[in-house]
Structure formats: structure tokens, C-alpha cells
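Contributing new complexes? Match this layout with NDP.
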Amino acid sequence: MKGFAMLKIGEVGWIEKERPTCGPMDAICRPLAIAICTSDVHTVWEGAVGDRHNMILGHEGCAEVVEVGECVKDFKPGDKVLVPAITPDWNSLEAQGGYSMHSGGMLAGWKFSNFKDGLDSEFFHVNDADGNLAHLPENINTVDACMLSDMVPTGFHGVELADVQFGDEVLVIGIGPVGLMSVAGAHMRGASRILAVGTRPKCVEVAKFYGADEFISYKNGSIEEQVLDMTGGKGVDKVIIAGGDVDTFDSAVKALKPGGKIGNVNYLGSGDMISIPRVEWGVGMGHKQIVGGLMPGGRLRMEKLGALVASGKLDVSPLATHVFEGWDYIPEALQLMKDKPAELIKPVVKLD
Ligand code: NDP
Ligand code: ZN
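Output block (do not edit by hand):
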């Protein structure tokens, strides 16, 4: 089978591989559409998951099942499915402890294009098919379905980590596709005011659509000063971080009220330490919580998030700004995500 792979750090290309084999609890699928992620850019050009050779890329997409193992109960060849980016081992102790995304070790629930070949291939392997796949609702098209692999679950996880409550004033730092879904999730959870940090006009326009009220540019001075100005010096109840770097935590802590929570879903690619401002962290006693997390995967979550899209309560269609048709466009779509032109949010390639 052919697949589009990371050949080594900084280099990509088409390769031929053996079709993966199906274990008793597994499924083999063929992608119907795939989306490119900022994480793919981190993986290839920054070596984010380490050096990998001839590893097929891709962790976002929807698919058709072509084969299932003898123990798989709820899926059969021909079924169309949502595929989560994170596919934990549901029998693991970590999953039993409530942190399935770390099954097998820290971040090890992220298997596609990390520990094994990903979706940008004629066929790909899904472990624990009953626990990880979800049936694709009939009224969700294949392009929108790709947003359910990672963008919706990650953006919404930021909202869960920050524990957004009715009436909260929320700061969302970063309004790429992940942060946009955090805006949407915070709005659904009843935030009374959403301040969003980002500059690309297309992202600002879509953030307004999802419920952002006011905007801050990190290029116009410090985020915290702008937030404090906009909140009469009080700060916000919750912060979701979906962009920036190790220094962004400094701003997040300073922009937060005592008792507030910071939910980080951003990948921190450089720097050894994250610094917490001592005074604004209440000299150690400010009850300002900081949590960072990889998105949870799993079938139940996919079904629930899929139901939000299928019911029309969450419209993900504004995210896929660039839609291509055909395998040949995968390299171009990845390059586009690397270049991040101003009008881009997410590139998707339809393969069916
Ligand atoms: P994008 O690059 O599309 O968006 C990043 C956003 O952050 C943009 O709005 C950008 O603003 C803003 N930004 C850039 N620099 C700063 C800064 N210094 N301070 C504040 N804001 C800044 O990324 P994605 O939305 O695709 O992904 C966001 C992050 O989430 C990535 O790091 C990705 O790897 C990670 N991720 C995490 C997952 C998880 O499970 N935890 C899963 C998937 C992705 P501008 O408008 O100016 O570009
Ligand atoms: Zn992704």
C-alpha cells in the first residue's frame, strides 16, 4: 500500500509498505477524508515526537472499515466511522485510573503517526476497535467528520480543563482551529464573556461566529495588561491556552483571578522551564490552578461530540477553509499547514 510519510526529521515523501495486519480486537480501515494538523508540522519539522523514519503521517480523518478482528462486536466491513486522534488501550491501568490518553506511558494513547503508522495511507490499523471507533452519523459529511478527530475534542478539552462554568469570563489564548473550538465550547458551557487572543483576520471572523466577544493581539503589548484593562483590573475566571509558548503561562497567571483555572492544550515545543510569576500566583497561595492535557479519545466521547455536530448544535464547517480531492494533494495540504497563509484554518483532503 502507498502512504505519505515522514522519512526523517524535515523530510516527507510517498512510500510503499505492507498493509497492516488485524489483531482480534482491531480494525483495518481505509480513509475517506483526512485533515492536516499543526501537530503534523511539529512532528515533521520540529521532531516533536522524536526522530522517526518512514512513518506514515496523519491522525485526523474519517474512514470505512475494511476488516475487523474476531472479537470486534459493533463494527463490520463497510461501516463508515469517526476516528479519534487518540486511541487508548482501554484495558490499561492508566485508562482504569481515568487517564486513558496516557495508557502505556505519558502521552502514549497518541499512537497514530507517533508509535505506529497514521491515516495518510490506503489502509491503517485501529487498536481496540470497539473502544475507539464511532459510527459516522449519516448527516455528517466526511470533511466535517475530520474535525471530530482532534479539533473538537482538543478544543473542548481545554474548556473541561479550565472548568468553565455558567457566567464565567474566559480568556482563550490562540484562535487557530483548536482555540476556535475552545471558544465554541466555552460559549456552549455558558461563559458570559469570551476574550480571544489571535491576529489572523479569518480566525477572528470565525471566533466571532463561535461566540468570542472581544479580541486581543499578542503583538500589541502584553496579553495580561490588555486583559486587566478590559476587566477593570480584576482579570478573568478561566484561561484556556491553545497557542503561544512557555512564556504564555506568565500572562495566563497574571490575567487570572484568584481561584481561577488555566487549561492548557497547547504543545510546548521549546524551552526547558515554564515560569510561574510568584506574586501574581498569590506568593504560592492564590488558588490559581494550572492543568495541561492531551485530548481524551475513545468511542463514547466521539459519539457524544459527533451527536453535537449531527444535531446541528455545533457547526464545524467554518474550520475547513481549504478542501482538496485526491491523494496527490496530501503533500500540498501539509505544506499549506506549515506555511499558515492568513486565510487558512484547516486543510482537508477528500479521498473517497
Ligand atoms: P495554530 O497555529 O493554527 O493557532 C495558534 C494560535 O495561537 C493562533 O491564533 C496564533 O495567533 C496564536 N499565537 C501565536 N503566537 C502566540 C503568542 N505568542 N501568544 C498568544 N497567542 C499566540 O494552531 P492550532 O490551533 O492548530 O493548534 C494549537 C496548538 O494545539 C498547537 O500547539 C498544537 O500542536 C496543539 N494541539 C494539542 C492537542 C492536544 O491534545 N492537547 C491536539 C492537537 C493540537 P495568529 O492569529 O497571530 O496566528
Ligand atoms: Zn491533530
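Reviewers usually confirm one structural detail per submission. For this one: The CA atoms of residues 81 and 135 lie 5 Å apart.
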